[in-house]
Design brief:
Length: 432
């Protein structure tokens, strides 16, 4: 049997890149098999090294909300690139992007740009600690906030595949236990746990950081009473509430998950969609807190490529497109249609299956009901998911290669694309 080009590339990659990939979940470790090496993408599709077309249901893990290689975004990037890729000095377009973000996210009075979601969350936590002059932070099981040391404790995303979830210990090697003692990990959606933590240690807590819609242990919605308790307690004890909207910002709604939930956080972390697929992220919030950042305050944060003009151009154009009338109504409607269609096919096949979606973000679970916590997610049928993943891949549909990841649509996923997915699912569910 001839060896395919994806296999050849994976073999070659493993010689110079650890595991053959530059981000762990891409390695297909949970589902098995060989990763697909992408050569190009357009709209809702990508083509692998063997020139096979796939319907893309991860969309670069969220950023490509207007579809791959959208002509307006490509044109904006080309125009910006003609004047150089980076200056290491301020530009007017940075101000325009900051103004756009502040206008779309009312909780953000000032914003600082960085190059990755990890940078954004790491910097927001340092700022919260500097502002409150406290050390302890609270995060929640299964929430992934990037790979900064103090956040790799019972973390989600690819770490759910690799970590020993039975231990309240770092989810990664190389993280000192000394750092972990400053991170308190609580169950997601557990009101009693957060109330107890504040009663016991409220005056030590610098910040609570959470995904308002978790997307790194598959899609899990935060319950309203959970969110209102966190907001009330952080205000009562003078702690900083950090909304990690790296994934949900401009993905679930134009004004973020916070607008759907009626919560006003103190700091918000953004990424993915705001860069239109380029390396771009940001954190921002109340001016009183942001003014503690250097050069105004004592909390240091810097980045050579922060706010680089090419990424800013892609972000500005993407945010302009998503701000157009009807964009989110269409995106949300198509995603709901996708989920209800898959649910009907699974039900017909007699497979225990549940779905959920918020905006252009979705979750599929091989379980009888939608999970509400990390513990419930880990009880879903991963073995059935693996078989379904490969069946769909064989039919030309690319799902996240892990049962613990949310999926993503774009405005380019029209009814014809959905019909392709449904046809693939009919065959795949029947084979389970």
């Amino acid at each position: 049997m001839a060896v395919g080009k994806n296999e050849v590339l994976f073999e070659r990659a493993q010689k110079t890149i650890p595991g053959g990939v530059n981000s762990p979940v891409r390695a297909f470790r949970q589902v098995g098999g060989v990763p697909r090496f992408v050569q190009k993408a357009l709209g809702p599709y990508f083509w692998d090294a063997e020139d096979r077309r796939f319907v893309d249901l991860i969309m670069s893990w969220g950023p490509m909300i207007v579809g791959h290689a959208h002509p307006e975004v490509v044109e904006a990037v080309k125009k910006a690139a003609e004047t150089s890729f980076s200056y290491g000095a301020p530009t007017e377009v940075e101000i325009e992007l900051a103004e756009r973000i502040c206008s779309l996210m009312p909780s953000i009075e000032q914003v600082r740009m960085v190059s990755s979601g990890t940078e954004a969350t790491m910097s927001a936590l340092r700022l919260a600690r500097g502002y409150t002059e406290r050390d302890l932070i609270i995060k929640f099981e299964g929430c992934y906030h990037g790979h900064a040391d103090s956040l790799l404790v019972k973390a989600g995303s690819g770490l759910l595949t690799f970590a020993d979830s039975t231990q309240n210990a770092p989810s990664s090697g190389g993280v000192p236990q000394d750092l972990v003692k400053h991170t308190l990990v609580l169950p997601y959606n557990d009101v009693a746990a957060i109330e107890s933590a504040f009663q016991l240690r409220g005056n030590e807590i610098a910040a609570v950081i959470l995904e308002p819609v978790a997307g790194n242990m598959n899609l899990i919605r935060a319950k309203p009473e959970f969110l209102s308790s966190i907001r009330r307690l952080t205000e009562q004890y003078g702690s900083v509430l950090i909304y990690d909207e790296v994934m949900t910002g401009f993905r679930v709604a134009l004004h973020g998950a916070q607008s759907l939930q009626g919560i006003v956080p103190d700091l918000t972390c953004l990424g993915k969609v705001m860069g239109g697929g380029m390396p771009m992220a940001a954190f921002g919030g109340k001016k009183a807190i942001m003014s503690k950042l250097a050069p105004l305050g004592s909390v240091y944060q810097a980045g050579t490529l922060s706010g680089n003009p090419v990424a800013v151009a892609a972000g500005l154009k993407t945010l302009e497109i998503v701000s157009r009338p009807g964009f989110y109504e269409c995106l949300t409607g198509q995603t709901q249609k996708l989920m209800s269609g898959l649910q009907k096919i699974a039900d017909k096949a007699g497979i225990p299956f549940a779905t959920d979606s918020v905006g252009g973000m979705f979750g599929m679970y091989f379980a009888k009901s939608v999970p509400t916590s990390y513990a419930e997610v880990t009880q879903t049928n991963v073995e059935t998911f693996k078989r379904f993943f490969h069946a769909m891949l064989d039919e030309g549909v690319y799902l996240a290669p892990s049962a613990y990841e949310a999926g993503f649509t774009s405005i380019a996923h029209d009814n014809l694309v959905l019909e392709e997915i449904f046809a693939a699912a009919e065959k795949s569910f029947q084979g389970l």
